[in-house]
Design brief:
This protein has 180 residues and is α+β, with helices and mostly antiparallel strands. It has a single domain, classed as Cyclophilin (Beta Barrel), CATH 2.40.100.10. The chain has an 8-stranded antiparallel sheet. A hairpin with a 3-residue loop joins strand 3 and strand 4. It is globular. The N and C termini lie far apart (47 Å). The relative contact order is 0.24. About 11% of the residues have low confidence.
């Protein structure tokens, strides 16, 4: 029995070291600070390189800091990234062409870029799905996944953009490589 315990301890240690070797790339990790805590997002540059670069650029400029979650539908998603807070705005940068994926799916925690009816209209707005939403696959660009702090996304106050009421904000959003 003592040999089995020793083997299990060694196996756990090896698995722990292997996990450390595959730690997230700080250049492709976003820290999204909300009222309740930090959400860690792993970006997927191999899936959506232009969208990942856009989000990192805007985060580095402080664009997202203080922006509200203007559309939050319980059991579906939380959307933010509009400096006007109406769902109609974006950054001063040009819109991006769609980067739809055939390999990634909008499962709980997926981060996608919001857009208008035009597939090539994503700019600065993004959303985090709170439940599996496969109907979004191939319709929206998926650029990342929440790897920590999904419970804080679940706590974002529901919000209909057409109805006045309380809103939650992004406290701070930064690329992990630049984190203070």
């Amino acid at each position: 029995m003592r040999g089995l315990k020793g083997a299990l301890v060694a196996l756990v240690a090896v698995i722990g070291l292997a996990g450390a070797a595959f730690a997230a790339d700080p250049e492709n990790t976003i820290y999204l600070d909300l009222k309740d805590g930090r959400v860690v997002i792993e970006l997927l540059p191999e899936v959506a390189p232009q969208h990942v670069e856009r989000v990192k650029t805007l985060a580095r400029e402080g664009f997202y800091d203080g922006i509200v979650f203007h559309r939050v539908i319980p059991g579906f998603m939380a959307q933010t990234g509009d400096p006007t807070g109406t769902g109609m705005g974006g950054s001063m940068l040009d819109d991006l062409p769609a980067e739809f994926s055939n390999t990634e799916s909008f499962t709980r925690g997926a981060v996608g870029m919001a857009r208008t009816q035009s597939p090539n209209s994503a700019n600065s707005q993004f959303f985090i799905v709170t439940e599996d939403s496969p109907f979004l696959d191939g319709q929206y660009t998926l650029l990342g996944r929440v790897v920590e702090g999904m419970e804080y996304v679940d706590n974002i106050t529901p919000k209909d953009p057409d109805v006045p009421g309380p809103v939650d904000k992004i406290v701070k959003m930064q690329v992990a490589a630049d984190a203070e």
